[in-house]
Amino acid sequence: MLELGLTGRRALVAGAGQGIGRACALALAEAGARVACLDVDPERAGEVAVELRGAGAEAVALSGDARRRDDVESAVARAAEEFGGLDLCIDIIGEARWGRVLELTDDDWDASFDLVLRHLFLLAQAVGRRMVEQGTGGAIVSIASVSGLSSAPLHAAYGAAKAGLIALTRTLAVELASSGIRVNAVAPGAVLTPRVAERQTEERRAESARSIPMARYAEPEEIAKAVVFLASELASYVTGQTLVVDGGATAQFPLSLRA
Ligand SMILES: NC(=O)c1ccc[n+]([C@@H]2O[C@H](COP(=O)([O-])OP(=O)(O)OC[C@H]3O[C@@H](n4cnc5c(N)ncnc54)[C@H](O)[C@@H]3O)[C@@H](O)[C@H]2O)c1
Question: Would the pTM count as exceeding 0.85?
Answer without folding.
Answer: yes
